Each structure stands twice: as structure tokens, then as C-alpha cells.
Amino acid sequence: MADFEIPEELVYTREDEWVRREGDRVVIGVTDFAQSQLGDIVFVELPAVGTAIESGVPFGTIESVKAVSDLFAPISGEVLSINEALEEQPELVNEACYGDGWLFALRPTNPTNPAELESLLDANGYRAFISERES
Questions:
Q1: How many domains does the chain have?
Q2: CA-to-CA distance for 56 and 135, rounded, in angstroms?
Q3: pTM for this one?
């Protein structure tokens, strides 16, 4: 397996997104594995602030020089903010997918019931998932 950055403090989806809890909201982005597979990111389509998104349902797209891919909601909630810098600099996803290349923040639909977050993969589970796909 190639050496991809997989921070221990995050949780991950099988669609190659990461989720970071920040108080009563979560921040979402694409993983280092995803951005490396996509190649140079040239466009990111994100939902509008205030949009309700549903877990497992596409909420936008990410376009690279190689392909256009759907982005899937890791949990249900209301979009609180989007990374507006990606409009002018989509390459931030390649340069700092866990930092300045984040996609959006949302308020979970049911923050007192973290079942959706608990169903996601921890860092070791995501590493194993990547290994299975590469073999």
C-alpha cells in the first residue's frame, strides 16, 4: 500500500471522505487517498449554505483532470458553511486535503445520537479498506 496520510483523530467513509467533529458541528473533506487517485483537482461543486443533506446521498461533485466524481454525505445534517476558497483554488484539496482543502461544515440532524458518526471507519479501519481495494 502506498503511504497515504490518514490522521488518527478523524473518521472516514467508504467513499473516501473524512469527518472531524468540532463541538456541535462536523467538518468534511476528501482523504489523501482520494485526492491522489483523482489527480489535479480543477473544480469542486458544493451544496449551498442552509441545504439539508442526507447520509449516503450525493451532495456535490469533485472534478479532476482525470474524472468527475460524486461526493457523498457521510452524515445527515444542515450545511453551515462551505470552503469558498475552493471556488478560486480547487487545488487546495490536493495541497492540504485535511487543512485548507476542507469542503464544508454541517450541523448533524441528530447530534445527541452519534450513530451515523459511530458507523464510520476509524483510521485503522480506513487503512484496511484502502489495502483491500489496492490488492
A1: 1
A2: 25
A3: 0.93
